[in-house]
Amino acid sequence: xxxxxxxxxxxxxxxxxxxxxxxxxxxxxxxxxxxxxxxxxxxxxxxxxxxxxxxxxxxxxxxxxxxxxxxxxxxxxxxxxxxxxxxxxxxxxxxxxxxxxx
Length: 102
Description:
The protein has 102 residues and is mainly β. The chain has one helix at 76-81, and strands spanning 4-6, 16-21, 24-34, 40-45, 49-54, 59-63, 70-73, 97-100. Strand 4 and strand 5 (49-54) form a beta hairpin. The relative contact order is 0.24.
């Protein structure tokens, strides 16, 4: 499975994520809650319990989700590399959003 960096945290409630900071994985788990403005997220990890992460602290959310109807906004860099060797292609009809289906 390939993880994708998700800039819009508001879309991640209930998703399985990895939280990264400066390229290192800090935590992985299920998004428990996100503030309305998408700047703060709580992740429940079976190892670390419930943790709070703020975008202001340079955390990034990387997600893989197999739920039907899961939608997220891909990063601009990801959109620019789609279809290039070594990078996944986005469906033609989804210029700025992607969804996965089981």
